[in-house]
Write a structure and sequence with these properties.
The chain has about 750 residues and is α/β, with parallel strands linked by helices. It has five domains: about 35-165, P-loop containing nucleotide triphosphate hydrolases (Rossmann fold, 3-Layer(aba) Sandwich), CATH 3.40.50; about 170-245, Helicase, Ruva Protein, domain 3 (Orthogonal Bundle), CATH 1.10.8; about 255-445, Up-down Bundle (Zinc Finger, Delta Prime, domain 3), CATH 1.20.272.10; about 475-610, Vaccinia Virus protein VP39 (Rossmann fold, 3-Layer(aba) Sandwich), CATH 3.40.50.150; about 615-650 and about 685-725, no CATH class. The protein is about 45% helix and about 15% strand. The protein has 32 helices and 15 strands. The strands form three sheets. The chain has a seven-stranded mixed sheet with strand order 11-10-9-12-13-15-14, sandwiched between helices. A six-stranded mixed sheet has the order 2-3-4-1-5-8, with helices on both faces. Helix 24 links the parallel strand 9 and strand 10 (about 520-525). Helix 27 runs parallel beside helix 29 (about 655-665). The chain is globular.
């Protein structure tokens, strides 16, 4: 590069928009998207280790897709090529592939190809990349604002890890704006800029999760405001309001949000929730959706979900539709609202002004996401988990069930107030009762529920690895497998979560955790050296970036073990464990739960399975004592005393003590006690252990003797157990406690 070209490049960089100049160059400068690039996440580890596979970044504008690709470009040793799908075609793809082949053959260097707006390529253009991604000639990084599951070829999607980026929070946008104001080289740190808190808050609020939007508005405010007599550029609320005036609602008539929003609207109608139905319809109208499309969907709904329960529904919808066609916008919105209200309150109005209350809310409220269970799950339920947790009203009595339809920040908001005239008078009580039931249901579960959140990452299918993991986790018995399955369902583990298995032992939870969080990370802690080495040997069969991290030591040594790995300060999204308080018996529930609470990340969850020894199967209850009534009374009293021993740390607690421990640790949660029954075959080895000489703890026979039974009576009990139990299957009962807790 000659001096003139270098000078022009520097000038172009200096004159480029603030949002471009402030683009982060390293992971340390990158703000937001902690769920995929936070400490310990797979993507962060892969970037730092320069071991990337093909990736697709999916998310709204201004969330950091291109920026993240540029960070990778600055971090990787591979040759990095950038093209934009809007401007590039097959010719540019072939040129990039030729360069990649040359560098691979001559220098052994990999090539990373970043394709911005990858969804803009047609099928033929995307297919041109496929064989070169397949054979490793190029590593593809694609960025798209459209759902890759139906805008990118399935073949490319199946060979790529998909990471979903979320709109930035207000705190993150504040940090980005402050960063631009303080940077003397790329931002406005060299100028005297004084911006009021109200002005900055306005820029952040209206930008609505878009970093580019807030930086563009900040640039306009600073560049168009002359300095005062003291040389200070003062940006007040009035200047900020001029710089960015209207909130942008994320909506694409052909894209993912379009389908999710109409899905939420239809589900709200089906759930007989007029408030939520008006809200989602207002969002569509505000974003410019064609009202005829909404009428068409309501016409379908009238026949599909109301039907003969109210034969007038279809007539009302068609009449409103015809009235809309004659009158047009904006007054036609009354008829749009009237049809929706009729359908929402029909059994399975003049109150249409309520629609404008909802519209005003959309104009003023911060952008709110569709609750995950209301999103359309027909196309990407497996990929992003959309629609999971939705309760189908037709499956419940009266075809209605209390569940959330409005966004979290609008719960309890009323838009529709039924009048006291005509038909509406007959539905006043029903609407009020359902609102009360929904609010009660939300309040009742808000303190402990673990919502099945949206899945933000996916990976290519690796059948060999999946089969190996499936074999690994299928070694458990039927009851253990059932417990593990239930724990993971209650924990609502997501693919990008960081998981800690605090009592890894046999790996019962570890390998299932690896399967469920492939883009996050799994740390398995065990105090057993032999068990830890066995886990490490099994982990080596997995690709390096997908292996769990095996930590050998006690929970009290966790900080030290993580520090050795360079992960000091790491916190976990889910902490899992089984039977923490059974072995070793010196563990005290209150102290252990308080310790575990300190390792939870924000919004993290503690999820434990714990058998309750105090409620274990009683041996005396398994045999027939006919003819030995007096002996039975003595044995029963002695055995019950074993489980009531206040000095024995194995049995001197129950579910109530764990509940207290959770509360005292500053956690909110729920404990679910489940009594399980299994067929267990008892052998002579069991009898020998029961009536032998205990090593660490007294045996069952020794406990009977200590309770006052003579040696002859203990022998009589042993003989009775041998005759009735040895080499036979019995119904063995176990009390299993599921502990679900989160930081208050």
């Amino acid at each position: 590069m000659d001096l003139f070209k270098h000078g022009r490049t520097a000038q172009i960089q200096q004159e480029s928009p603030l949002a471009h100049r402030m683009r982060p160059r390293t992971l340390a400068e990158f703000i937001g998207q902690e769920h995929i690039v936070g400490p310990g996440r797979l993507l962060r580890r892969a970037i730092q280790a320069d071991q990337l596979s093909s990736l697709i970044f999916y998310g709204p504008p201004g969330t950091g897709k291109t920026t993240l690709a540029m960070v990778i470009a600055n971090s990787t040793q591979s040759h990095f090529i950038t093209i934009n799908a809007v401007l590039a075609g097959v010719k540019e793809i072939r040129e990039a592939i030729a360069i990649a082949q040359e560098r691979r053959e001559l220098y052994g260097q990999r090539t990373t190809l970043f394709v911005d707006e990858v969804h803009r390529w047609n099928k033929a253009q995307q297919d041109a990349l496929l064989p070169w991604v397949e054979n490793g000639t190029i590593i593809l990084i694609g960025a798209t604002t459209e759902n890759p599951y139906f805008e990118v070829n399935k073949a490319l999607v199946s060979r790529s890890r998909i990471f979903q980026l979320k709109p930035l929070t207000q705190e993150e946008l504040h940090a980005i704006a402050r960063q631009a104001l303080a940077d003397p080289e790329r931002g406005y740190g060299a100028l005297k800029v004084q911006i009021s808190e109200e002005a900055l808050a306005h820029l952040v609020d209206v930008a609505n999760g878009d970093a580019r939007g807030v930086l563009n508005a900040l640039e306009l405010a600073v560049e168009t405001t002359p300095a005062n007599a003291d040389g200070v550029i003062v940006v007040d609320l009035a200047v900020a309001e001029e710089s960015i005036q209207r909130r942008a609602v994320l909506y694409d008539k052909e894209g993912d949000v379009h389908y999710d929003t109409i899905s939420a609207f239809i589900k709200s109608l089906r759930g007989s929730d007029p408030d939520a139905a008006l809200y989602w319809m207002a969002k569509m109208v505000y974003a410019g959706e064609d009202p005829r499309f909404i009428f068409r969907r309501m016409g379908i709904f009238a026949g599909e979900d109301v039907g003969m329960a109210d034969p007038q529904a279809i007539s009302v919808v068609i009449s409103c539709w015809e009235a809309f066609e004659r009158i047009g916008m904006p007054e036609g919105r009354f008829h749009l609202a009237q049809a929706a209200l009729y359908l929402a309150t029909a059994p399975k109005s003049n109150s249409a002004f309520a629609f404008f209350d909802a519209l005003e809310t959309v104009e003023k409220e911060q952008e709110t996401a569709v609750p995950n269970h209301l999103k359309d799950g027909n196309r990407d339920k497996e990929g992003f988990g959309h629609g999971q947790g939705y309760l189908y009203p037709h499956a419940y009595r009266d075809h209605w069930v209390a569940q959330q339809y409005l966004p979290d920040n609008l719960q309890g908001r009323l838009f529709y107030q039924p009048g006291d005239q005509g038909y509406e008078r007959t539905i006043q009580e029903t609407v009020a009762r359902r609102r009360e039931a929904q609010l009660a249901a939300m309040l009742e579960t808000a303190d402990w529920r673990l919502e099945i959140g949206e899945i933000y990452t996916t990976s290519p299918t690796n059948r060999a690895k999946d089969a190996w993991l499936q074999r690994t986790v299928s070694q458990a018995g039927e009851n253990l497998a059932r417990q593990r399955q239930k724990l993971f369902e209650l924990a609502a583990v997501q693919r990008h979560h960081r998981l800690l298995d605090v009592e890894a032992g046999s790996g019962l939870l570890t390998w299932e955790a690896v399967r469920r969080a492939p883009e996050g990370g799994v740390w398995a802690l065990t105090a057993d050296q032999q068990a830890g080495e066995a886990l490490r040997q099994m982990a080596e069969k997995l690709p390096e970036m997908e292996r769990p991290f095996i930590l050998i030591g006690d929970l009290s040594e966790l900080a030290y073990l993580l520090e050795l790995r360079g992960e000091a300060g790491l916190r976990f999204d889910r902490i899992l464990g089984r039977n923490l308080f059974s072995q070793p018996v010196t563990r005290k529930p209150k102290a252990e739960i308080r310790n575990l609470a300190g390792w939870l990340a924000e919004n993290g969850r503690l999820c434990l399975i714990q058998t309750v020894p105090r409620q274990a199967q009683r041996l005396y209850a398994l045999v027939d004592w006919r003819g030995h009534a007096a002996l039975r009374e003595k044995v029963a009293a002695a055995e019950e005393a074993i489980y009531a021993d206040a000095a024995d740390p194995l049995v001197n607690w129950d579910e109530h003590d764990l509940e207290t421990a959770v509360t005292q640790a500053g956690l909110r949660g729920q404990l679910l006690l489940e009594r399980q029954t299994e067929q267990r075959r008892l052998t002579a080895a069991h009898l020998a252990r029961w009536f032998g000489v205990g090593s660490d703890r007294p045996s069952y026979g020794e406990r009977l003797a200590a309770a006052g039974l003579s040696a002859a009576e203990v022998q009589q009990v042993a003989d009775l157990y041998r005759r009735q139990l040895v080499d036979r299957s019995v119904r063995w009962q176990t009390a299993v406690l599921y502990v679900l807790a989160a930081l208050t």
